[in-house]
Amino acid sequence: MSIFWNVWIIFPTLLVIAGCFFLLRACSKNKTGIEEGESMGHTFDGIEELNNPLPKWWAYMFYLSIVFGLIYLALYPGLGSYQGLFGWTSSNQSVGYEEGIKADSKAAVELAKAENRLSQYDREVAAADEKYGPIFAAYLATPLEDLVKDEEALKVGGRLFLQNCAQCHGSTGSGGIGFPDLTDGNWLYGGELATIKTSIMNGRNGMMPPKGGLPIEDSEIQGLAEYVFKLSGRDHDATLAAQGQGSFMKGCFACHGMDGTGNKFMGAPDLTDNAWLYGGSRLQVMQSIANGRAGVMPAWNDILGEEKVHVISAYVYSLSNK
C-alpha cells in the first residue's frame, strides 16, 4: 500500500477517535454559566430544557469504547499497512490474491505456515481437517457405487453442493440458461459415476464457434434452426428444415453426429433430446448457431480436494438417478 493511502486511512481514523474524546470532554464540563438542573431558557411543545450533565454511565461507556478502539488498532491490522502487534491475519492467501496470481498465494500460505504466523483461516482449516479428515478419507475409500446408497454421505454431498455448486446449478441442481440441469438425465460428457467425478475434478471447457466454424451463410441459419427442431421432434417448417439439413451436412455432423445425437467425448450436445442449455426458442437456437457458445466449468480438485469431490459426485449422480 502506498504512503498516500496509508495516510488517507490512518489520519482520518485517529482524527475521528481524538475528536470523539475531546467532544466528550467538552460536553462533560458546564460552561454555560447556568447552574446544573436550572432551566436553559428553551421550551418547545411544553418541554423545558434543563442544564443537566451527561449520564455518568454513558460517559464512562464512551471512554471505554475509545480505549477499546485504540487497543484493538494497536493489536490487530486496521491502520493502513500496519499489521498489528500480534501480526494476525484472517488469511495468508491475501498476499497472493492481491496480485491475482494463484501460485503466489499458495506459496504465501506455505511460507506463513512454515514461519508459524497467526492466521485464523489456516487454523480453522487445520482444525476442520483434523476433525473431518478421517470421515472424508473413509468416504474416498468407498466406491462411488456404494456411496450413492449411503444416505448420510448424500446429505454431506448435498451440503457441499449448496456451498460450492448451487451458485451456477441452483439449489436443486436444476440449472439455468447456460448452466446444465443436473436432474434431467441429459449429460454433455456422460452421466456415469466416474465421468461425473472426472467432470467435477478437472472441469470442462465447452466451445462451439460461430456457425460451427463452417462456411455457412447468414441466410442458412433459419433453415438450420428448423432442422434442429425437426431432430428434436418439435413443430417445424418442413421446407426450411430440408434446406437446413443440407447446411447441417456441411460439417455440423462432425460434432453432433449424422443423426444429431451428439458426442459425449467432445461434449457436443444431443440435438434430439429436447434439452436446451442456452434456451430452446427459435431466436435462442438461431443465436446459438450464429454466435456460437462457450461454457466453462472450473476444476474443483485444487479447491476442494478429491475427498470432497468424491462425495459431491455421488450426490450429483443421485439427483437424476433416484
TrEMBL record:
<keyword id="KW-0472">Membrane</keyword>
<keyword id="KW-0406">Ion transport</keyword>
<keyword id="KW-0997">Cell inner membrane</keyword>
<keyword id="KW-0349">Heme</keyword>
<comment type="subunit">
    <text>Component of the cbb3-type cytochrome c oxidase.</text>
</comment>
<dbReference type="Pfam" id="PF13442">
    <property type="entry name" value="Cytochrome_CBB3"/>
</dbReference>
<dbReference type="InterPro" id="IPR009056">
    <property type="entry name" value="Cyt_c-like_dom"/>
</dbReference>
<keyword id="KW-0679">Respiratory chain</keyword>
<dbReference type="InterPro" id="IPR050597">
    <property type="entry name" value="Cytochrome_c_Oxidase_Subunit"/>
</dbReference>
<comment type="function">
    <text>C-type cytochrome. Part of the cbb3-type cytochrome c oxidase complex.</text>
</comment>
<keyword id="KW-0249">Electron transport</keyword>
<dbReference type="Pfam" id="PF14715">
    <property type="entry name" value="FixP_N"/>
</dbReference>
<feature type="domain" description="Cytochrome c">
    <location>
        <begin position="152"/>
        <end position="232"/>
    </location>
</feature>
<comment type="similarity">
    <text>Belongs to the CcoP / FixP family.</text>
</comment>
<keyword id="KW-0479">Metal-binding</keyword>
<keyword id="KW-0677">Repeat</keyword>
<dbReference type="InterPro" id="IPR036909">
    <property type="entry name" value="Cyt_c-like_dom_sf"/>
</dbReference>
<feature type="domain" description="Cytochrome c">
    <location>
        <begin position="239"/>
        <end position="320"/>
    </location>
</feature>
<dbReference type="InterPro" id="IPR004678">
    <property type="entry name" value="Cyt_c_oxidase_cbb3_su3"/>
</dbReference>
<dbReference type="InterPro" id="IPR038414">
    <property type="entry name" value="CcoP_N_sf"/>
</dbReference>
<keyword id="KW-0812">Transmembrane</keyword>
<dbReference type="InterPro" id="IPR008168">
    <property type="entry name" value="Cyt_C_IC"/>
</dbReference>
<keyword id="KW-1133">Transmembrane helix</keyword>
<keyword id="KW-1003">Cell membrane</keyword>
<comment type="pathway">
    <text>Energy metabolism; oxidative phosphorylation.</text>
</comment>
<dbReference type="InterPro" id="IPR032858">
    <property type="entry name" value="CcoP_N"/>
</dbReference>
<protein>
    <recommendedName>
        <fullName>Cbb3-type cytochrome c oxidase subunit</fullName>
    </recommendedName>
</protein>
<feature type="transmembrane region" description="Helical">
    <location>
        <begin position="6"/>
        <end position="24"/>
    </location>
</feature>
<keyword id="KW-0375">Hydrogen ion transport</keyword>
<keyword id="KW-0560">Oxidoreductase</keyword>
<keyword id="KW-0813">Transport</keyword>
<keyword id="KW-0408">Iron</keyword>
<feature type="transmembrane region" description="Helical">
    <location>
        <begin position="57"/>
        <end position="76"/>
    </location>
</feature>
